[in-house]
Amino acid sequence: MNLIDLTHTFDQEMPVYPGDPVPRFEQTAHLDQDGFNACCLCSGMHVGTHMDAPLHMIAGGKFACDVPTSQFFGRGRLIDARARAAVTLDLLRAAGVHSGDIVLVMTGWYKRFRDDAYYRDFPEVAPDFARELVSLGASIIGLDTPSPDRSPFEVHKILLAGQVLIIENLTNLEALVAVDNFDVVALPTKLQCEAAPVRVIARAHGM
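Above: the chain sequence. Below: its structure as tokens.
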């Protein structure tokens, strides 16, 4: 089985969206003193590779824990937007997306994950792209950027109102460039929250 991890490692120096709280790690037990190691983590939900559930932007929307688990598995479709200033509708029309697909948008922006510009200059998803993704019945959009858009978050609202989950801060999407056929597994922590950390794995076929 050819498995490709698309998830940033969560560590003590994770960058955060401007204005969000900085995660805090605390080691609460030490092997040499207590016979075991243990840590405590305090973090917002929108840090590192994470999934936005509908409640993030939609009144009465689902918590992360209430999204059907069937939505976390699907055929993957890769959209190459590396040369684009924005993710536009023409890219989607060429991708052959069908109902239930998990669409991964590769901009290459993940390479700036720990740079100051990462949260400032990222390419956005066009609203008509988002509306078409909803119309096609995609289950998830995953991005190697911190967000599909900026305030007032029109694209977030289009996607989440249409039950398309959003994964932000993916990494390593370029490992899929030469892969014609792959599935995606995106399992968020089962939290009664508007979002959750998620481990995202692509399973490539025919490599």
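The mean pLDDT is 96.
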